[in-house]
Amino acid sequence: MFSRLILRRFSSQPIPSQIKDIIEKKPINEYITVNGWVKALRRMKKIKFLDLDDGSTSQKLQVLLPSSFDLSRLSYHSGVTVTGTIKESSHPKQEIELHADKIQSHGSWSGDVSYPFAIRQSVPMDYVRQFQHVRSRTNTFSSILRLRAQTRACLTEHYARTGFLQVDTPILTSNECEGGGATFSLQTEEGKKNKEALFFGKDVFLSVSGQMHLEALANGLSSVYTFNPAFRAEESLGRRHLAEFWMVEAEEAFVEGEAGLEHLLDRVEALVRDTIHNVLERGGEDIKLMFKQNTATEGILREALSKPFARITFAEALQRLSSAPKSQSSRGGDDDEKDSNASIKQDSDVRESERRSSDVVVADDSNSDLRREDELLLTELLNGPVFVTHWPAHGRPFYMARSLDHPDKVLCADLLLPGVGEVAGGSVREQNPLALQQRLPRTQNLNWYLQLRQWGSVPTAGYGLGFERLLLFLLGANTVKDVIPFPRWPKHCEH
């Protein structure tokens, strides 16, 4: 009796359809209910038109209503529930339309003139970024968020297909991993008043990387990955930097030596290539919108898929940079700018600074690193993605294994992508407990990490890939601040 009552109660309400499904399936003559927001409103003598958007697709569903319907309470982005029949459309740019016989409005609209967006108004992303709490209502940013979700799904699909197990590494940690010092420390309200009242009894940080925990888990599960937020307290305003961002990190057991490094590069390349290919195939109208706004992006992506990624050593990279024509400049430049307290102007200033970089100042082996303009120039010289391997040991993290043939080099690699620079980095891990003990940072208690080597572990290798930086490459966006829902960077954490 009770089950029949429940069935009657809920069966009387039709299940709302998603606009994406309606447009794909074209259920002609079906009576449906759909929820959404008004994106356009047009009034004729005998009929009224609404363009309806529910966030499931970049395409809009046209709704026809009799002129007798009172739409005085509706305006741009009013929420409505519409019920009616799907009919074939006579309009050349759309195949179907919804002939409504019932419309219900939700919420209220104050008519506030300060609302930042208007119907059919095109505004720059720098402006939209000021209103993070409502920018998902814009066509471009809603497409970016759908593509972000699609990209994440493609990454997850790749790992499942290649036998990697998803695990969750902690957000709170007592280790700094790379020891760079750019970490956020955690403190309770009580701890602010009493330094002896540390919640964990020690200093604890927001995680910069899940790598060490992945190494521990790989020694029981073989191949693991995590998709977690990471946090860096770097005073950078560059287009590639955020204080809170997302990392894809993977670790694989029984991988060592020079052959292990090549295997690691194969893994990273396969992941990136598969993801790009699948997003191109499945991105639909959203990826078309990105390519329309950034006309060079599709060609760059297709070119990247057309051939294997280049692989050169750090020493070879320096040679290529040294022999590059003096007049050849990268598109990058130093993307770290001082805060001008003008959030709209900030990123455009950075890009202008990048465009003014006209002379190549080549990195040298003494600092064991590449500047961003060097990274971008290498991708131009090699016309596509580049792995730079075998970096000088000084300046590299303590956990990287040394090359047996060249002990002053480590078995590591960075992946550089055109227009972005470094997107991923990885290494074969140091397996010798004595060598590792000598390099461990004195400021951190990493006995547990050392015990992984002492208690019967096997060689591992792994990498981390910056998710927002990959999205920069995929979407041709100008800054990582425009490919994440609520970006956090120095002096900006308002929502």
The number of distinct β-strands equals: 15
Instruction: Report helical residue fraction.
Output: 25-40%
* Secondary-structure element order, N to C: HHEEEEEHHEEHEHEEHHHEHHHEEEHHEH
Strand content: 15-25%
CATH topology category name of the largest domain: BirA Bifunctional Protein, domain 2
Low-confidence stretches: 4-11, 329-334, 336-361
Main sheet: strands, sense, barrel: 8 strands, mixed
Question: What value does the Rg take, in angstroms?
Answer: 27 Å
The CATH superfamily of the largest domain is known as: Bira Bifunctional Protein, Domain 2
Give the class-level CATH name of the largest domain. Answer: Alpha Beta
Major beta sheet, strand line-up:
6-9-10-15-14-13-12-11
CATH second-level architecture of the largest domain: 2-Layer Sandwich
Structural class: alpha+beta
* Amino- and carboxy-terminal Cα gap: 48 Å
Mean pLDDT: 87
* Tally of separate domains: 2
Pfam families: tRNA-synt_2 (PF00152), tRNA_anti-codon (PF01336)
Organism: Hirondellea gigas
Region (Disordered): 323-366
InterPro entries: Aa-tRNA-synt_II (IPR004364), aa-tRNA-synth_II (IPR006195), aa-tRNA-synth_II/BPL/LPL (IPR045864), Asp/Asn-tRNA-synth_IIb (IPR002312), NA-bd_OB-fold (IPR012340), NA-bd_OB_tRNA (IPR004365)
